[in-house]
Amino acid sequence: MLSRRHFLRTFSGLGVASVSTVAYGFSEPELQLRVTRYRISPPQWPADFKLKIAVIADVHACDPWMSLERIETIVEHTNALGADITVMLGDYVAGQRHVTRFIPADEWAAVLAGLKAPLGVHAILGNHDYWEDRTVQRDGEGMTRARRALEAAGIPVYENDVQRLNKAGRPFWLAGLGDQLAYWPARRYRTVRRVGVDDLDGTLNKITDDAPVILFAHEPNVAARVPSRVALQLSGHTHGGQVRLLGWSPVSPAGQRLAYGHVRMNSDVIISGGLGCSIVPFRLGVPPEIVLVTLGKPASIVS
Questions:
Q1: CATH no. of 4-302
Q2: By the 8 A CB rule, do 183 and 194 touch?
Q3: Angstrom distances, CA of residue 246 to CA of 36, 129, 146
Q4: Which residue has the higher pLDDT, 9 or 223?
Q5: Cα–Cα distance between 267 and 261 in angstroms, integer?
Q6: Average pLDDT, the chain
Q7: What is residue 22's predicted lDDT score, i.e. its pLDDT?
Q8: Where in the chain are the domains?
Q9: Nearest partner of 126 among 223, 203, 35, 198, judged by Cα
Q10: CA atoms of 237 and 273, how far apart (whole Å)
Q11: Looking at residues 186-211, what average pLDDT do you find?
């Protein structure tokens, strides 16, 4: 079976640089960045409770593809959306080797600290935030550099944690899941037996009342296990396949159904196409995006 890694490396080597007008890695990134808007009304969410959520996923900070200046532009665009709350879905660390500089965590975190929203900025970690931290992989435990940097910048990081928030007296819960692939590379160490640090049941058991729940999980794969108690799941990780043709992603780490966009399962699921690149600095048919979700209105999508 062709993996995403092999597909992207093969595809990017077939002369596709000639289509630079549509390839993110070979064009002016400011011209490619878009905002994708979803307006949904999950049955578990009060129809008269309007909440706007800005979503940032898969930054993959590195030069030259995701520079600090480009992250500053993303922060500015996100703040301009006027969302009630901003969530970040992980993978701040570069996931490729075609770079001129790996940007240290304290540098990209300081820029992301510029994000502002009335109900705060909230983050989870992604697989690359774990995978690229050699100490954590070797030890099979510990706090990643990415988490330390985010928390030092004043951004709370959720790892199987919840928080109860409210807007105009209307309560809701944020539930952040630990990464499902955190220790995948560490399998080569005999002392490391686990793969993920996620605990879906334990996380949801921390919810103490019947207020609606928003779950953010880096990998969308958990959606099949998410109970209908959750109104909305927000995920990244897939990059929309990073190559998407006529609404189809040739290779997606979460399968075609969970490759990109809005999916209705036990809960509503929105999968962001993300902002950066993994494996190779190339996108085709799935431009980098900031997602804006408005809850409490009829379902529609406008790009």
A1: 3.60.21
A2: yes
A3: 17, 31, 35
A4: 223
A5: 14
A6: 88
A7: 41
A8: 4-302
A9: 198
A10: 8
A11: 90
Residue of 8, 3, 5 lying closest to 286 (CA atoms): 8
Give the whole-angstrom CA distance, residue 275 versus residue 182.
20
- Looking at residue 301, its pLDDT comes to 55
Please tell me the distance from the alpha carbon of residue 198 to that of residue 210, in angstroms, as a whole number.
23
pLDDT of residue 190: 65
> Alpha-carbon dihedral of residues 100, 103, 104, 105, nearest 10 degrees?
-150
Q: Using one digit for the tens of pLDDT, what is the confidence trace for 221-268?
A: 999 999 999 999 999 999 998 888 877 677 777 677 899 999 999 999
| pLDDT of amino acid 213 | 98
Total Cβ atoms within 10 A of residue 264 = 11
Q: Is the dihedral of CA 272, 246, 7, 29 positive or negative?
A: negative
Report the alpha-carbon angle 66-101-242, nearest 5. 40
